[in-house]
Amino acid sequence: DSIVDDERTSNTVAALKQGILDNLFYVLGKRVEVSTDMDHFMALAYTVRDRILARWLTTREDYAKNNVRTVYYLSAEFLMGPYLASNILNLGIDDVIRQAAGELDLDLNHLIGQESEPGLGNGGLGRLAACYLDSLATLGVPAMGYGIRYEFGMFHQAIRDGWQVELTDYWLRYGNPWEIRRPQACVEVGFGGHTQSWADSFGEYKVLWTPDEVVKGVPFDTPIVGYRSGVANTLRLWRSEANESFYFDRFNSGDYEGAVGAKIFAENISKVLYPNDEEIRGKELRLQQQYFFTSCSLQDMIRRHETTGHSLENFHEQCAVQLNDTHPSIGVAELMRLLVDIHGFGWDKAWDITSHTFNYTNHTLLPEALERWSLPMFQSLLPRHLEIIYEINSRFLSLVRTKFPNDEARVARMSIIDEHGERYVRMAYLACVGSGHINGVAKLHTELLKSDVLRDFYELWPEKFINVTNGVTPRRWLAVANPEQSELMTSKIGHDWIGDLDQLSKLERYAEDSAFRSEWQGVQRAVKVRLAQYIAAKTGISVDPSSMFDAQVKRIHEYKRQHLNVLYILTQYYRQKKDPTLEISPRTFLFGGKAAPGYFMAKLIIKLITSVAEVINSDPEVNQHLKVVFLPDYNVTFGQLVYPAADLSEQISTAGKEASGTGNMKFAMNGALTIGTLDGANIEIRDAVGHENFFLFGLTAAEVVARKAAGYHPHQIYESNGALREVIDGIASGRFSRGDGSLFRPLVDGLLNSDPYLLFADYQTYVDCQDRVCKTYRDQEAWSKMSIYNAARMGQFSSDRSIRDYCKDIWNITRFEIGAGL
Ligand SMILES: CCc1ccc([C@H](C)CC(=O)N[C@@H]2O[C@H](CO)[C@@H](O)[C@H](O)[C@H]2O)cc1
């Protein structure tokens, strides 16, 4: 990139060595002799950061100079993972810094392992936001990420006696070298209180909101450096702190409880990430968190807009805001409040700006994940916003009545206010009404949004709906996670694929090259050995790298059907027990994933996996061919070990339930073959890699709906399928739970009586498909050919392609080259 580094930040081995020593001494106050691994990591991190700062400042100056249109990605979660390795890659200093560290007797890989990852997300949604920040900076798109700087991120998972145990995530215990606190840019956010309204001298309707709690939002900025683009965008995460003045008044007036209460209230807001994935809990603190970071971000955007000499009239021309699911959708009401109450705009002008500023991405179809807040809670926490939402809603419903006269049922269905029970605000509807574009995250998902969950809105505003299929960054998920495969590919097609993943298609012709295939197999072997060592170190279980590594790593959820995977494992188990001479191709079943702490069935599924593992791994009649491992504490760092090492990727959700999936993309990019249903992005992956290179099974989304509509009786399948019955009876008998037949009763009863995710309906086609997998794996030449085709044809699943789609179809932004000017 075009940035010129001065001698202090030049990328020579000497300058890097000096940088490490200087940071160790001047920043950490340590002499080499007495410094620890963590000190060395910190010194290295600061030395890398030093080389990002110039890009960061230059980027910001160029953006200001060229008053660029900017993307603001609002997300309650950013699952960034450890920064060091990907920052080194993106700066293009891998070789020199490895040499510099080596000459100081420091092992770069070991130091990279010292970093505690900022687990500021649950799963797919949070990680997608992180991949998108990498692509935005790599493509040179002016952008900022806005979120919450949780003091405690996603809990760490330990497995005790086969059960998940949650441990606090002190990710900040050693400090975070990548962030800079910006106290001068803090803002205030109010909660609760009451509103007063009056007509001013021009008869204008005025409202004053007097909150009874005011907290301070303090931003922490982290540079997001692009891959060899010279651009460094900003991730601004907000921390809530007590608002001094607010605090001291009470203190000085002797109201100590009040004072301390205010302090606790304030600091609680950004204290901890809610570990629920796909299930709302309706907790007030969660709404406080959402309003807090959204208000901080919008106030910050308005301040930046005005300080760069712009008038708010054209706010929407300069700012494109993406709502990452409904979690920041309160922003629609907050921007209206800021424009009308604070900046004196009339309603219509304010609405024109607001509805042209926001865009909404939906990430789930599960009804239990669609956020709705009770009116009483909304009234007490955000009284002014509720008034504004009522106004938005009444104007919206009159539009609905105009477009669909005499259809009050539709009006009730579409109202932002759900009149049922204690009445609720439906956040997805507020997002749809207040956004210019609504997108799903895979073709099938977007179609289901249009035909089902958001059907009424599609009939009203078809032009708003668009699909942008997810993507993942090849920097972290290939170049950093799988240097072996990366070097082999680069040796054949050069390294441009890292910044332009479509170049992978040049690999296709090597699939037919047996020499290349054996190199490919060699790489796969090396990566599997690395994972086997990690597994042995973490769990004490030894796995055979020559066995097929079959991996299912993702959040534990019934719709993702980890328990269907277990049904197949037990089918193999019973086959082997019945005939110990049966030649079953050796397979290692790898599981990883956290369950939301309050999600009983998900926790029971983890217990089922660990219990089955205990029986199988200790049974000499089967453990030569079958091994089951539940790897605790699945996170980004762990993912970087598993995705490259897997031979088979399990993407077996009930069709119509997984919005997209992104793990499926990471596996296939790394050469794993997929066994999966026609769900989410599996469909597009299968079309890209070739139907012959994908193991498909199961009902389609339409068949699932039809099967349920026709009346689904899982018990009948149980009775008519001997293998299934044997497996279910085995689980129910206590054979896999030390004789306790009651342990898995809830799971077994759930399957026999309702089986809402149709495991029984897909059982036989899944088992048959797995048998095809076994057969294919025996022919390693055929397998590695399919593996190479998979990797070669994954270009479109780069998050760079997704971001290009967003720029073209939603944000109307063209690329911006540093120094090039628009
Ligand atoms: C309110 C609790 C809550 C928290 C998070 C969520 C997320 C939307 C859940 C999530 O991560 N969804 C996943 O998003 C990925 C990125 O688009 C998709 O690839 C996955 O299919 C989807 O499950 C829903 C509800």
UniProtKB/TrEMBL annotation:
Keyword field contains Calcium: no
Keyword Transferase: yes
Record-level GO cellular component terms: cytoplasm
UniProtKB keywords: Carbohydrate metabolism, Glycogen metabolism, Glycosyltransferase, Phosphoprotein, Pyridoxal phosphate, Transferase
Catalytic activity, as annotated: [(1->4)-alpha-D-glucosyl](n) + phosphate = [(1->4)-alpha-D-glucosyl](n-1) + alpha-D-glucose 1-phosphate
Pfam families: Phosphorylase
Record protein name field: Alpha-1,4 glucan phosphorylase
Species of the source: Tunturiibacter gelidiferens
